[in-house]
Design a protein that fits this description.
2 helices; 8 strands; 127 residues; 2,3-Dihydroxybiphenyl 1,2-Dioxygenase, domain 1; 8-stranded mixed beta sheet; alpha+beta; single chain
């Protein structure tokens, strides 16, 4: 099998949806020593974290129809090509492309017979 031409396609980060992000933050700071930075987003406060080993992620509030969960993001070099390949191989897009200003873009998809994952493309530098 030929590997896809999407770049290294490594895990970029994990995002958690919490019913009480502040409480989740305190827990993870105390138990694991993770450092957090808060950013205000249209959907509410987003708590980005960095683990001592360099692992990264974030905590966001759950949506009204959502249970607490965690979602892994796979970094790709070309989001449009990744989406086309996901669909070609039988994956189902569950959240279309979202552009996050000054950060990057992502979409969520369901793996055939499996869980939901996301693809992430870092914002390309201008110039």
């Amino acid at each position: 099998m030929t590997p896809p031409a999407l770049g290294p396609a490594s895990f970029a980060f994990t995002e958690m949806a919490s019913e009480d992000p502040a409480r989740s933050r305190r827990f993870l700071e105390r138990v694991f020593g993770w450092r957090f930075r808060a950013t205000v987003m249209p959907q509410g406060e987003y708590l980005a974290f960095e683990a001592p080993d360099g692992g990264r992620g974030g905590i966001r509030p759950t949506r009204s129809t959502e249970s607490p969960s965690s979602l892994s993001y796979v970094r790709v070099s070309d989001l449009d090509s990744a989406q086309a390949q996901v669909e070609r191989e039988g994956g189902t897009i569950v959240l279309p492309r979202v552009d996050v200003p000054k950060m990057g873009s992502f979409f969520w998809f369901k793996i055939p017979g499996g869980p939901i994952l996301a693809c992430w493309q870092d914002e390309r530098p201008v110039g």
